[in-house]
Design a protein that fits this description.
Elements (H helix, E strand, L loop, with lengths): L27 E4 L8 E6 L2 E6 L4 E7 L11 E7 L8 E6 L4 E5 L4 E6 L6 E6 L5 E6 L3 E6 L4 E7 L5 E9 L4 E8 L6 E5 L4 E6 L6 E7 L4 E6 L3 E9 L2 H8 L13 H7 L1 E10 L15
Antiparallel strand pairs: 1-2, 2-3, 3-4, 5-6, 6-7, 7-8, 9-10, 10-11, 11-12, 13-14, 14-15, 15-16, 17-18, 18-19, 19-20
Length: about 300
């Protein structure tokens, strides 16, 4: 039976000029504005972020790194958007190769604040659910939590051994948990769960042997899928335990108060259970072809 060439259905339609930085790569995010969902995109382009109208194929706005007495123009390394439903709460965070972060109102282009806690390239950005906080990760292996409203840094989280690849907030209102999930390209501590109230890492998933380049939370935060430079995606279940289940988990503590399993500590002290469900073979191509991003 002849092999169907399905790829022939896809043809090049148009070119949009410079869409990447030579040092930092490309970052593209949809901008939900003007009552549209997928018409406008923000694209990194050297030291600038360009706003493209995909329908008219025109640049409608740009965000430029203003060079002042103490600032040096730097390439954009990553961008992240937050849609608050109002022009003043529709935010875009721009991370730069020099470690700076600038937060703009993306409909007006107005600069809200600048954060300068990192010294090297920003590699991960994420807003919380109401846009009041921003978490950033960088090549310095550090995660910083920022108060967007108060325009100040809150605290740093350290524990990874290599560049931070992705961040995501994980909530559970019933159990009043405020957590952050992070991944790194280090070969040992690749995915970590952080309690933001205690500023403490309480669970680490070694998982892949070559570092996690991306992950995604699915089904209201009850599933975690991680990807690396290997050919497989790993799948985990995430579940918050009831008080009864936490007491049952405490029975696994051995003599002397030590935990006999890596995940029992998170179950007993934080009421969170993370279990591997298996893996998905994504391809059989070379190991160097790593996962760049997982999203929904």
């Amino acid at each position: 039976m002849p092999r169907t060439k399905n790829y022939l259905r896809y043809v090049h339609e148009s070119t949009f000029g410079v869409v990447a930085a030579s040092q930092a790569g490309v970052s593209i995010k949809y901008l939900p504005m003007r009552d549209t969902k997928d018409r406008f995109v923000a694209v990194s382009a050297n030291e600038t972020v360009l706003f493209w109208d995909l329908k008219t194929r025109q640049i409608i706005n740009k965000l430029t790194y203003d060079v002042g007495d103490t600032a040096v123009a730097s390439e954009v390394s990553i961008i992240e958007c937050f849609h608050g439903g109002h022009p003043r709460t529709n935010l875009i965070a721009v991370g730069y190769a020099n470690g700076h972060i600038r937060v703009f109102e993306y409909e007006t282009g107005m600069l809200k604040t600048t954060f300068t806690g990192h010294r090297v390239a920003i590699t991960a950005l994420v807003f919380d659910k109401d846009g009041s906080r921003l978490a950033s990760g960088a090549k310095d292996c550090t995660i910083v939590l920022w108060d967007v409203v108060g325009e100040k840094g809150l605290f740093s989280l350290r524990g990874h051994k290599n560049s931070i690849s992705k961040l995501a907030f994980l909530y559970n209102d019933e159990h009043q948990k405020d957590l952050l999930v992070s991944s790194s390209i280090d070969a040992v501590a690749t995915v970590k769960f952080w309690d933001l109230q205690l500023q403490h890492c309480f669970c680490t998933l070694p998982g892949h042997s070559s570092g996690v380049w991306s992950f995604v939370l699915l089904k209201n935060g009850t599933r975690l899928i991680t990807g690396s430079s290997g050919p497989e995606l790993k799948v985990y279940s995430i579940r918050f335990l009831s008080d009864t289940e936490k007491q049952s988990a405490s029975g696994k503590v051995v003599d002397g108060g030590e935990y006999d399993e890596l995940d029992v500590k998170s179950e007993v002290e934080y009421g969170l259970q993370v279990k591997p469900l298996g893996q998905i073979l994504r391809n059989t191509i070379a190991i160097s072809n790593r996962v760049r991003d997982l999203t929904v």
